[in-house]
Amino acid sequence: MRRAINNILLLVIVGVGIYAYRGPLLLMWREVFSQYFPCEKPIAYSIGSFDARFGISKEEFLRVLAKTEGIWEKPITRELFVYVPNGKLKINLVYDYRQEATEKLQKLGLSVDDSRDSYNILAARFKTMKQEFETQQSAYKILVGDVEQRNDAYNAEVTRWNKRGGAPKDVYERLQEESASLKLAIVGIHTVEDELEKRRDDLNALVTVINQVANNINVSATEFNEIGKARGEEFTEGMYTSDRSGQKIDIYQFNDSAKLVRVLAHEFGHALSLEHVEDPKAIMYRLNQGANTALTPADISALKLQCGIK
User: Residues 238-260: pLDDT tens digits?
Assistant: First the structure.
């Protein structure tokens, strides 16, 4: 017991000595302090990078963060987080293909939630959209082939008449009409190409979200995995990271404020050094498949254990 007390006192002395150093040793000291005195000092957080394309103001985001704090603080009546403009834990809104995919689906009139019904609806819509895309793609290939044949025939005839010194007036006028017609056909091809590209983007967005929902409800989406793998990364709504560069929570995707609160709450749990729990309804369950924004007994038990509360 005396050795343990001496070790803690030594840590305090060393910590005071290196506080002004503000280097790697300070980061180590913070980690040691958190290990021996968990939950004694609130985690100071601030807003880091903030992408306005998420459609949420900083004021509203701060209100969501305050609500998220309460999820962890109220059950044990202890301040665990505090907003400070230069807080060390940076909360970032990172806009990339994940949020873009969600917004594309909303524009298509598809609402998304983490349920098997939602997954089935999205999968059925994918099959329909894929069939429509393949039909249009086949028609596009036929159109391109027809225009290429006409263009080859046109160029061949123009070459022949040029070798003869020029075409008669009626032939020349016909060739001029064909040239104008070919130009219009090429414009039409570009229009179809743009439409196909849009449909392809919609399909990719749908696959991205299908894989997200499949992951969250823990079902296999083998049929869509190959397309999803093309992106080279797993769909993650949020992620907590702590390394030599500091602590941060990156938020990549949310459908609404309720989903944002739940994703933030999960990552706040990791910031408290909590691991995943086995309760599927818990905030700290490994899959974000629940709808509740309150701690379950499993969450509270893990929190009390971490904070040394009986």
Answer: 899 988 888 999 998 887 888 89
